[in-house]
Write a structure and sequence with these properties.
This protein is mostly helical and 156 residues long. The protein contains six helices and no strands. Helix 1 crosses helix 2 and helix 1 packs across helix 3.
Length: 156
């Protein structure tokens, strides 16, 4: 369930059923009692709940619960035309994932440079809202052109 840009009462009610505890925790951080939604004269209305929900930060309990409830297939579909600026991760989380990717790649190269057998390069960290990169396989001819060890000696 991704963040709905225009949550109506029904959608907010479904969100409460699915992730009510997380939403209640986010409201409590703002000194808002979720029970006010159901009290006569309470200071929380459905409209206000929708506004708060639409503007929750990516690291909030509700957004984390929504992100964790998505199956991998839905994450992949979201990532196809994704805008990383609008992703459900904060900028800091995206930077941390990028650093992790670079560190894994450095370790992979270091192992290969020191005579180890590193295998395939590490896959990038899965990020919601960012499409995974599809690897292109080189043909045998392309590998031979790139790697001088694979070239046939001339006139041999």
């Amino acid at each position: 369930m991704a963040r709905d840009p225009d949550p109506g009462i029904r959608r907010l009610a479904a969100l409460l059923r699915a992730h009510g505890e997380a939403l209640e925790a986010d409201l409590a951080e703002r000194q808002i009692d979720l029970r006010d939604l159901y009290r006569t004269g309470g200071r929380l209305t459905w409209r206000r709940l929708g506004v708060i929900y639409r503007h929750l930060p990516p690291q909030s309990a509700t957004m984390t619960a929504l992100r964790n409830s998505l199956p991998p297939e839905a994450l992949a579909v979201q990532g196809q035309d994704a805008d990383p600026a609008a992703s459900p991760w904060s900028h800091d989380q995206m930077l941390a994932a990028s650093q992790l990717d670079v560190l894994r790649l450095i370790l992979h190269v270091l192992l290969a440079a020191n005579g180890g057998k590193p295998g395939q390069p590490p896959a990038p960290t899965v990020r919601p809202g960012v499409a995974g990169q599809k690897k292109k396989r080189l043909t045998a001819d392309q590998r031979r052109l790139l790697d001088p060890r694979l070239r046939q000696p001339k006139g041999g």
